[in-house]
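Throughout this chapter, every protein is written as a compact record of paired, labelled lines. An example of such a record is reproduced below:
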Amino acid sequence: MNRLNLKNNLILAPIAGYSDAGMRTLCRRYGAALTFTEMVSAKGLYYNGANTKSLLFTYPEERPIGVQLFGSEPEIIAYAISLPELKKFDVIDINMGCPVPKIVKNGEGSALMKNPELVYKIIKAAVQAAQGRPVTAKIRAGFSSDDLNAVEIACIAAQAGASAITVHGRTRDMFYSGKADLDIIKKVKESVDIPVIGNGDIKDNSSYKRMVEYCGADYVMIARGAIGKPYIFAQILNQDFEYSAKDAIIEHLNLLCGYLDERTAVSNMKKQIAYYVKGMRGSKQIKEKIFQTFTKAEMLHAVESLL
């Protein structure tokens, strides 16, 4: 089932602080069929927040691309989806899994899993506002280990008109620790008639195969496994590829400088580089030198000399 009409079943997750236009562009080149923005506040769009809007920048070669919104008010989410700035996005995703305390305290993110009635209203409003574009929802196994209600929430989302559901196999109280529960993803797949996107612990071809073969996932979403490793998609697809960490870092930096001011681009790039050089010989020294740079020229010089 391919209701999202993608060239393969690999998707880059929305990753706060990481899935910027640079990372997305590189992941698309190495085989990701769909990528998502970092999560964007529907309320921030409603109040015309400048910082919020910078998250919506995309390069033409990124398409198809999805935007992930978070919020808890159906009418504000619908308003955000109908904005001209969101017309370019091919898929609208609603975040119902973020575990961050300040998000949860506002009744947003994974807190929505405790409010099935509101989930229905949000998805329904989003579908109406999306004007035919697929609306998906990203959920967790449950809010806590005592309440694994992913099946219930997935069924409600499907009834409200969602085109697909992403299930991260961890509960909210696990955050990103422990192992993803593949059984809950399997149960969701057996319970809904819309495509299921499996998410959690995908780091190579074998973990990808488990998600597809054991859980029956229609699509597989990669999050942390792709940070600093955009080539993971080509690896999983068994495609030949050429890759240079130095070249990837330089291109990523140039892409960020294409839409962010230099200081912000360099600052954002430092955390990305920490992952690009992870596992390399001398990675600690490389990071120390790069973290001392404050301009694009300084960062490029450090990358060229160190890598």
Q: What stands out?
A: The first helix runs from residue 21 to 29. The chain is about 40% helix and 15% strand.
